[in-house]
Specification:
Layout lengths: L1 E5 L4 H12 L3 E6 L7 H12 L4 E5 L5 H5 L7 E4 L8 H4 L1 H20 L6 E7 L23 H20 L3 E6 L2 E2 L8 H11 L2 E5 L5 E2 L2 E2 H13 L8 E6 L5 E2 H12 L4 E5 L14 H7 L7 H19 L1
Parallel strand pairs: 1-2, 1-4, 2-3, 4-5, 5-6, 6-11, 7-10, 8-13
Antiparallel strand pairs: 9-12
Helix pairs in contact: 1-2, 1-8, 5-6, 7-9, 9-11
Length: about 325
Amino acid sequence: MKVLLTGAAGFIGYHVAEALLGRGARVVGVDDLNPYYDVRLKQARLERLAAHEGFRFYRADIADHAALRAAGDGWDLIVHLAAQAGVRYSIDNPFAYAAANMTGHLSVLELARHSPGLRHLVYASSSSVYGAGTPLPYAETARADRPQSLYAATKRADEMMSAAYAHLYGLRQTGLRFFTVYGPWGRPDMAYFGFAEAIMAGRPITLYDGGTLKRDFTYIDDIVAGVMGVIDHAPSNAGEHRVFNIGNHRAEFVRDLVHLLEAELGRKAMIVDAPRPAADPVETCADLSALNALTGYLPKTKLDQGVKKFIAWYRIWCAERG
């Protein structure tokens, strides 16, 4: 199987690439290595992927359609995980989101419709699309037309573009609404990673509303299992477009995450309390019944187990950086 995987140097992209390569797939990874966070981490992920004979890396901005087309052809599967991430970053850098998330997604769709042997396009959406006032747990049938951030609006726009391309060109597609993903080789801009760095450095961390916000923290191995399950259960019919939640179905207090980090690091956090930003929901929790019915998806990793594994990796990463 020949796979194009965008965002290969990213957190989820790296782990999905490892899983595909472990199955013997030939993977062409595309990434622009933008400096949104430490590029050394992205490069280190790519170095590990390069050890696989079936992996080839192609550096390109997916919003540049000519550059994306030059990555190759003959794709059996496209896994599109590249995006400009981060909710708050979109407030100050809106055009980065329009380019990467909307023009970039359109570029991938155009590539897909001109790939005659393509069996399936799997792409990343986000739990952020649910916006304000959505009943818990979030179900795929809930409204998704009240975004609280530009990031959320771009990801919902991606879903709508995919629906249009499925209808017009018969593309088989699956969108995955990722909830809060964490684990080894994670993103430094995510709260759990930033908290760990601050605690180790003796810097204060900010908890909104006393840490009472709740998130559906999902360990990376469970996310990869869900992605691979979707790949194994491609749509049967031309033009079929599906959207699934992929999370943990368990909302945890952010303050409990901090306590677990303190325990694993052996240090107390210096906490600053602040009001919740307007773009942040009070709680997120995924209804997983649809994905479970299709693939048997059932997350296995509890938060304390996942934090332990993350900190074990984090210590090694810090030591290697010196």
